[in-house]
Specification:
Length: about 500
């Protein structure tokens, strides 16, 4: 039985509960991987009109072994903008994450905004196994034999190799490189600075939850933070959502319940289970919390400014007789239909517009981020069943997760003491509206490993292109980032001149 709508997206969240249906009454952590039986349509997003040229770099398949088959190459896509640059000037590299690179470039207007000031060359490198950078073409996702080459260490090595080659081709070996990344891309940027300090002089890691592993932070943090976002708007809003799950569960036992529910939720096809509705609502609340931006934006979907407030307004202003579930539905409709163009809702089938499905494999191998729902969260309470999770991964891919690999490879425990004595030039920026912020670095570690925290910020909001409606705190955050990067570069050029 696969009752879950799989949740696609960057930093794909995982439902931390099953609906307590009679057949499956144990609350369980369901990885996306396990939920992955409903067909996911592949679609191509319209290509944004970006000021970049596209290139393809022959990249080595396996950087870490020297067997003949490791030498196979594949084409890794990267985007480049040379409009402001001259030889010797800085190179700003976006370390691509789990999706096609055009999408990240379109949503990282910040780099374009600051390029003229630094006369920077901009490069956006696609992560292997995403977008067009498929090492085995259409067969890339066939099995663990091919997917085995999809991991963060190979991705970091790809970036290093490509950057070196690019600098050589530009005859600009002395250009300082600064890496930028958001979300998983931010984790990669921070790790890149730690692993390849000779390639990048600094990293701006926005909304990078590098502490979301093992037992570094409480497992309930993520969903507690989502809930807090709603509670901060209104207690009633939080309570309505929290109370809606029981109403949904009651429907699963009613005759004609699913037919009625399909009508009420305006689904395109009659529902097979209430669990898909749980996933659909869940997705709307979680992703809206993540992208609770201060201005109208279209990252995952088009949404108004501060969409959590808008959702709660819908809930709080519903007619007094309305059920909690119908209020939750009305709120979720904001997420799915702010464009006002949906005729019906595809509750059981979703469309993967940005080619994100490789994240599934990554969560089943190295990116094990345990999550639970506490009693205080607005979601049904549940624990994390590692054994169950591992079984699902085994079933799907024939491999088991390596639960402690990330903290072994990159650290994370006692990060403050460790990085205080090692490492430099990293900005960790986090907005507390973003539930991933709880897994981020929220305190200054040293004079050059800086945490910039904004109370009202959401998921890598600083990376969005500036707009005329940006609030002061956001402009100030970006100003600080620019100032710190400028300092790194000044130091670099000073050292270069005195070498
Ligand atoms: C650098 O030039 C070589 C030779 O033309 C080419 O194969 C390689 O793809 C170039 N590197 C990058 C990063 O484009
Ligand atoms: C989406 O919004 C439009 C405009 O308000 C409305 O006519 C339509 O019924 C909505 N779609 C769904 C599925 O609710
Ligand atoms: C959550 O609530 C349940 C049932 O009320 C209770 O048994 C459990 O101890 C509570 N857990 C926590 C962590 O408070
Ligand atoms: C870290 O230090 C910077 C100044 O370098 C300061 O602006 C910022 O608020 C500090 N961050 C935290 C979380 O205290």
């Amino acid at each position: 039985m696969a009752p879950f709508r799989s949740l696609l997206f960057l930093f794909i969240i995982t439902l931390c509960v099953t609906l307590t249906a009679p057949a499956n009454s144990l609350p369980t952590f369901f990885p996306r991987a396990a939920a992955y039986q409903s067909p996911v349509k592949q679609a191509t997003a319209p290509k944004p009109n970006l000021p970049f040229n596209t290139h393809y770099f022959p990249q080595t398949l396996d950087h870490f072994t020297f067997q003949p088959k490791s030498y196979k190459t594949f084409y890794q896509k990267y985007l480049i903008n040379t409009q402001y640059w001259h030889k010797g000037a800085p190179i700003f590299v976006y370390t691509g994450n789990e999706g096609d690179i055009d999408w990240f470039a379109a949503n990282t207007g910040f780099m374009l905004d600051i390029a003229p000031k630094f006369k920077a060359l901009l490069v956006f490198i696609e992560h292997r196994f995403y977008g067009e950078s498929m090492p085995f073409g259409k067969d890339s996702y066939m099995s663990a034999k091919t997917l085995g080459y999809l991991n963060s260490q190979q991705a970091l090595a790809d970036f290093a190799v490509l950057i070196r080659s690019l600098k050589q081709n530009l005859s600009s070996e002395a250009s300082p490189v600064v890496v930028f990344g958001g979300s998983y891309g931010g984790m990669l940027a921070a790790w890149f600075r730690l692993k390849y300090p000779h390639v990048a002089v600094g990293a701006l890691a926005s909304s990078a939850p590098i502490l979301q592993f093992d037992k570094i932070i409480p497992w309930s943090s993520f969903y507690d933070a989502v809930s807090q976002d709603f509670k901060d708007v209104s207690q009633n809003c939080y309570e309505v959502i929290k109370g809606s799950w029981a109403e949904l569960e009651a429907i699963s036992t009613q005759k004609e319940g699913l037919t009625e529910l399909s009508k009420a939720f305006r689904t395109c096809k009659t529902l097979h289970s209430t669990a898909s509705v749980l996933g659909w609502l869940w997705t709307a609340f979680v992703y809206t919390a993540m992208v609770n931006y201060p201005t109208e934006a279209n990252f995952l979907k088009p949404l108004p400014a501060y969409p959590v407030q808008q959702m709660c307004k819908i809930i709080d202003k519903s007619p007094s007789g309305a059920t909690k579930l119908s209020r939750a539905f009305a709120a979720a409709s904001l997420y799915y239909n702010y464009s006002r163009t949906e005729n019906c809702f595809e509750v059981e089938h979703e469309v993967d517009t940005h080619g994100l499905h490789g994240w599934d494999w990554q969560t089943c191998t190295e990116m094990v981020m345990p999550m639970t729902c506490s009693n205080e969260s607005m979601f049904p309470p549940s624990g994390f069943d590692y054994k169950r999770f591992a079984e699902q991964c085994q079933m799907k891919y024939g491999v088991l997760p390596r639960q402690h690999w990330i903290t072994t490879e990159f650290g994370g425990e006692r990060i403050e003491e460790v990085l205080k004595r090692f490492g430099s030039n990293i900005i960790f920026s986090n907005g507390m509206q973003d539930p991933w912020s709880r897994g981020g670095v929220l305190r200054n570690i040293s004079t050059s490993i800086i945490a910039l925290v904004t109370e009202k910020g959401a998921h890598h909001v600083d990376f969005r292109a500036a707009t005329k409606d940006d609030p002061d705190w956001l402009m100030e955050l970006r100003r600080q980032e620019v100032e710190i990067i400028q300092k790194w570069l000044n130091e670099y050029y000073f050292d270069l001149g005195h070498a």
